[in-house]
Structures are given as structure tokens and as C-alpha cells.
Amino acid sequence: MGLKEWIEKPAAHVAPGEKSLSNVLRGAVARLTTPLLPDDYLHLVNPLWSARELRGRIVSVRQETPDSATIVIRPGWGFDFGYAPGQYIGIGLHIDGRWHWRSYSLTSSPTWDDKVISIAVKAMPEGFLSSHLVGGVPEGTVVRLAAPKGDFVLPDPPPAKILFLTAGSGITPIMSMLRTLDRRAVERELDLPDVVHIHSAPTAENVMFRSELERFDATHDRFRVHVRHTREKGKFALSELDEVCPDWRERQTWACGPQQMLDDITAHWVAEGIEDQVHLERFAVSRADTSGSGGTITFAKSGKTVTVDGATTILEAGESVGALMPFGCRMGICQTCVVPLEKGHVVDLRSGKEHAEGERVQTCISAAAGDCTLDV
Amino acid sequence: MAITDIRAFSHLTEDDIVALANEFDAIRRDVENSRGPRDARYIHSVIRAQRVLEVVGRCALFGSRRRSRWIIGTAALSLAKIIENMELGHNVMHGQWDWMNDPEIHSTSWEWDQTGPSEHWKRAHNYAHHTYTNIVGMDEDVGFGILRMTRDEKWRPRNLAQPIANIVLALTFEWGIALHDLSAKKELEGVPPTQWNSGPNKEFAAKAGRQVVKDLVFFPALTGPAWRSTLSANLTANVIRNIWAYLVIFCGHFPDGAEKFTTEHYENETRGEWYLRQLLGSANISGGRAMDFFTGNLSYQIEHHLFPDLPSNRYPEIAARVRALCGKYDLPYTTGSLARQYWLALRTIHKLALPDRFLKATADDAPETSSERKFDRWRPDAPVVVTEASTGRRRGLLTALRVHAEHAVAERRRRRGESSHREPSATV
What we know:
- The structure holds 2 protein chains of 2 kinds.
- Chain A is of the alpha/beta class.
- Chain A has 4 domains: about 5-40, no CATH class; about 55-150, Elongation Factor Tu (Ef-tu), domain 3, CATH 2.40.30; about 160-280, 3-Layer(aba) Sandwich (Rossmann fold), CATH 3.40.50; about 295-375, Beta-grasp domain (Ubiquitin-like (UB roll)).
- The model of chain A is unreliable at about 285-290 (pLDDT under 50).
- In chain A, a hairpin with a 5-residue loop joins strand 14 (about 340-350) and strand 15 (about 355).
- The two termini of chain A are about 30 Å apart.
- Chain A has helices at about 5-10, 20-35, 40, 130-135, 170-185, 210-220, 230-235, 240-245, 260-270, 315-320; strands spanning about 55-65, 70-75, 90-95, 100-105, 115-120, 140-150, 160-165, 195-200, 225-230, 250-255, 280, 295-300, 305-310, 340-350, 355, 360, 365-375.
- In chain A, the strands form 3 sheets. A 6-stranded antiparallel beta sheet of chain A has the order 4-3-6-1-2-5. In chain A, strands 12, 13, 14, 15, 16 and 17 form a 6-stranded mixed beta sheet that branches.
- By secondary structure, chain B is mostly helical.
- Chain B has one domain (about 5-315).
- The two termini of chain B are about 20 Å apart.
- The chains are: A alpha/beta, B mainly alpha.
- The interface of A and B includes residues 92, 100, 328, 336 and 353 of A.
């Protein structure tokens, strides 16, 4: 082990995106602050001065449509701006003493220049967090962030012919891709690849990023956007593709929108035998099945799955298929069995309280509420 | 031999115990449903205060060649370490703040300023100690495998050294705990204790090494010419924290009135009986707000054992409800000042250093342990579970204990009066 690695060691697990010099410094100071990091003291001075957990400050909230807004965030130390367009981030808000986590697609184009990122949020009728973000979050609020993730990304260089199929807030990851294409076109003095974008929204005023789409359409010859107002003209039928974009079979397609739309697209592309050309992002808002009907539990690290009823604890389910489950008291007091819930919902069998993606749950007293994935 | 039949001991019926369990569950539910911003603010401000105090202490020690600075620095650092261990480390690792869903204040991620790794402690403490509380042979925290704290355990010659072992343990408490947790971890993982390069050993060495080097090498070196006084200050702060933690822990389950249990009892234990065991097996420390804070609210050891994962700042209000329940079911609620509780623990340590033949009381009716058979002796006079007709008050365990104590005192007086000319008993 070299000297640099040795100094860096206590901070080695922190912030892969940080410049290496700052991590050498962090490692050196951590010898004095062990078992904590210097960040654990510094973030008490400025909330953004910590790379241990990513944080950000809301810079502005800009209304996009009556029920959606773009939220611009300045991330603190340790954030990696080298994300891929189309990825999503986790965002945690502190409400009533608790951190509530949701994932949203980044709408910004990855760049180190302006040191901000943005997401766009549509207020869901029963989604209290999305409503809070769209309607009530004050500028200056400090939020938690989870590093960008996701495979729904635009490669660099992009394919020569692209089709974007979106509906509603499904446009958000595509915005990051479009903005990236637009920025690269300017930077590299190239034109865009051949892009067709078919977007659906109920009415004209519900179209997120409408003016920006119009501007792209006007400035780039090879970018064509078709916006369908569904309230007036009905849903966009995939059979119309041959008319709107006759060469769709030759294009790499990125699609994002409601579950039904994505299912239809999958079937349509499979029927043509070109399913390897379509990339889907499913972020349908999953509602927990609080009837406690159970579901299929996936144990991510061991790769095991099991389908159980709503009375079986996750711990029992994991053990039944041989996943390596930590456990202790098995009665909900000792916290030995706590693991992160990666996807889906679980229900606390004692209180009936529901836990969602991003939370850490006690497996010994929790049961699946619909399909879920645990990081164990 | 410690309590085997908790129902008989507690003077409660099966229905009573179910009802009691429901009452405890209701307390848990109420607190869980009312956790909110007030609690979050509390823990955040404790964390902030603790870190500021630590920084102040460390900074003051740069001038520690001056006596006043040494005292300020050592005091601040000692308090910071005490708060870090008790109100923060212990409670956060119990999952008391997991409900906030904050990855930095979470039982799975918290690492504390102590010799041993958190991971080891959590296994030994949260699992073994809190699940099997005071079951002789299952809860290693009964004497930590070093001290004989109940006559249910067989006397061994090394127990003669108990008074000295006790002092050494107090001074080096963090090391005692760390080694205790290390062996518990190895046992749980099935690692041979003699394998020197096992996973738990490596984790222990890494953590302990960092801790020692920080306080005894890096910080003294950083203060340059004041290195010698900084070193002594850091050592002192660690020892003060050790003694304090030791005092608080020893007052939790070792004073008289904190009952011990047999493995036979555990085999058929119901949820209600589990609550009852926690209640009867723990002892509180009375005192003011400062005592509560600096013990990490372990002055509410009873409440902590009933609800180990509820936020510590709620223990005072929980205590009021637990006391009311004890009144209702006529159960003892063991509490006393720090001095009194520690004196009782200390008495047991010294008494039990001796072999059993020097002890007068049996394991069924001793100060530090007793069983349901304790009440057999004066059974005819002792009250059975009844309700006083005039007041509607239940006469249960607490009444039985009082009657038993009165009989015992009367008998002792009688014996002394009758045979005062005989040689005084050498037994204790």
C-alpha cells in the first residue's frame, strides 16, 4: 500500500466522485475524528459540507405546468456530475421529523460547469411528497440525495437514428437526453442525430417543457417533435407509428410513460422481432397493497426470490430460500435484522405501518405488501 | 434458584399477564404514533452539542500545559465522550432513531467512540442481553463472565479476586465491554476462539487500534509541546467515561430487587411474561434531568428494557405510565439514588466473592436473587391475589414482598433477642 492510499484509507469508502486530493485530506483528518469523518463535524456548520451522505440545497422551484415543477438543486460535496443522461436520483425530504425518499429522473444535462442538477416532479393526486415538492417546498431547503442510478441511458456517441416515445411526466429522463444532445451539438459543432420525439399529454397546457421542445424543433433540422393532446384526439395508437415515423423499425427507441403504454410498446416491438432496439423506463408510481396480500420477494444480493402470503415475515421468507438474512431477537426489538428496502413496499405486522423504497426495515416483523426487493 | 415460575412470583393470573401485555403494547403504540419533529430536533441538538463540546475540549488541550486549560479540556472531553457513548451511541444503535429514516443516525450505520466495533456490541447487547435479560446462563451481561453477581452461579476460586476485578473493570470498562462483545460475536459466528486471524479479531484490532492511536498518539502529537498534558488529559477523559458507564450499567441490573431467571422459565415464556421479566429484572436510578441526560436515560433502565427501541427522550413520560401500571397490578418498581443502587451492587460483588457456605440466604430468597419459592415459608399469612374490598386496591407481589420483609425482620429480631449470648454469626 502506497503512502497516498494509506492516508486515504479511512475515507476510501466516501464519495468516489470527489477529487482525490480532497479525499487524501479527508483520510488524514479522519485519523483524528475516527470513528467519524471530518464531514460529520463540518456539516453542522454548512449542511452541504459532507460527502458521507450526499446532500443538496434547493436553489429554485420553477412551475412547468399547473401540476408539475422543475426543482433545481445544488448538490454538496461528493456528488458525481458525471452521470448519464436518463438516470434518476433518490431525493430525501425531511418532513415531520422523518426523511422521506423518492426517486426522480434527472432532467439536467450532466456537466461540471454550473454545479447544479434538476429534476421535474409531477404532483400525484395522493402522493404527498410530490405535492409537497411541486407546491410547497421553499427555496433553500436542504435535501438528501442518493447517487444517480439507472440503465435507461443515452450512450455517447448516440445512435444515428433515435425515437423517443413519452407520455406525461415520462418525458423527464428524455429531457436530460435532449438537453445533452443539444449541448453537445453546440460544444462539438455537430448537428443532432436524427431524432423523432412523440409525446402525449392531456392538453397543451399540460405539456411539460413545451417551449423548450418548440425551441429544439425550431433550431435543429434533424429533430422533429409530435405532441399529441390526448383529451382532444385520444391516445396515441402504436399503429399510427407507420404514419408519423415510418422508419421506426430502424431506430433505437427510448420510451417512458404509464405502465400500460410500456406494456403495449413491448408487445409491439416483440411482434416485430426488434425488442432489442427498445429501452424502457418503468417508473409507474407503485401503490402498496396494504391488504397485506404478500407478493414476490427478491433478495438482491443472493439473487433469490420467493412468493409468500401477507402473514409470512420477510425474514422467514428469506430463510426459507436460503438468503443470508441477519437476525437476532425475531420479535422486533434488537434491530439486528434491519436491511434496506430497495423496491416496493412492506408492512410492519405490529403496527400496520407501511414502509417504502429507500427505508431500512426490520425483516423479522415486516411482511411483503406486493412485490418487493431487499438489499440482502 | 432464580425465578422459574414468573406467574407465581408476580402473584398474577394468566389473564392479568395478557392484560398487562396489552397495556404495555398500548404504550408502545402511543409513543410510536407520536414520534415527530420534536423528537428529531432533540436528537439533532444532542448530536450538535456533543460534537461542539468535543471540539471545544480538544482545542482547550492545545493549552493544556496550563492547569486551568487542562481541567476545562478534560472536563469537556469527558462529558463529550459520556454523551457520545450513552445518549448517542447506545441509544442510536438500539434503533431508537431508525424511524427518522436518516442513514447517518441509524442503528445499522452508527459507529461509536469506544474500543470495540459497534457491530460486535450490537450482537452481544441488543440480541443476547435484551432478549435473554437476566436469565442466568443465557444473558452474559449477568456479571459479564467476570463477576459472580448471583448465588445462582457456582462459586469458583477466582471469584475471591472479585473486589479487585471489579475495580479493574471499572477503570477499563470500554476494554472489558469490547472483549466481552468480541467473544460473544465469535460464539455467535461459530469462530474458534483461539484462531488469531479470525474476522471478528481483525475487526476488533482495526477499531481498537484506531481508537488508541487517536487519543494516545495523534492528538498529543498535534498539540506539540503540550503533548504530555494532552496525553494525560485524554487518558483521564477515557477513564472518567469508563467509570461513569460502569456505574450506570451496574446500577441497571445488579441492585437488589432486579430479579434473575432460569432457563426453564424462558422455554415457555409468553409475550406478557417477557415484559414482566424486563420489569422485574431491571432497576432505575432516581435523580433529576441531568442524571437522565448523562446516563443516556438509562436511569430509566426499566422503561428501556420494556421498550429498547423507543426514543430515549420519551422514557420519562413512559415511566409515568409504567409506574401507574405497577400500582394497578401491585408490582414493585425498583428505583433508588445512584449511591444507593451502586452500594447494593457493590455489596453483592463483595459478598458473592465468598463461597456459598459463608452465605446465609439461599438462592430462593437472597437480596440479589430470589424465586417464587421465597413466599412458601410464610405462605399461610401471605396474601393470595385479592382485591381489598374497601379500596378496590389489588394485593399482589408488592404487598407479598412487604409482608415477607416484615416476617423476615421480625424473625431476625426474635432470634437476636433469644440468643444474643451466642457467638455472632460469621455468615453474611
